[in-house]
Predict the structure.
Amino acid sequence: MKLHLRRRKLVLGAALAMVGLFAGGYVLGSNRYGQPKTIIHVVEVQWRPGVTAAQKQQVLDGIRNMAAQIPGIENIWVKPARLEPRDFSTAFAIEFKDRAAADAYAESAAHDAFDKIYVPLRANSLSIQVTN
């Protein structure tokens, strides 16, 4: 009788352990996401005819230079993964710490210097900012 009772406890313990492992795995594996308060500035670019690869690289280097100079820029992205409309060939994104940092970027001397290189080379651009 004692052996039979001990066996039931072992089976019950094993079942509870399996349920616990399953629940733990489910919780760890569940999709988690955040809604940060940063500002993401995304730009798609259509170049003027005749713009060279070196000029395009100069623009991307200008984004890197701005990121190093302007406080509040947290991250940049300079390689497009997919673009729509298809006749746009370059994209970049800049993540700002907050609205004040995005506003400071727009008014900064580093941004003005960047625009002097970038604006004459672009035929068209699409720009959006998103946040939570």
Remarks:
- The chain has four helices and four strands.
- The chain has two domains: 1-32, 39-130.
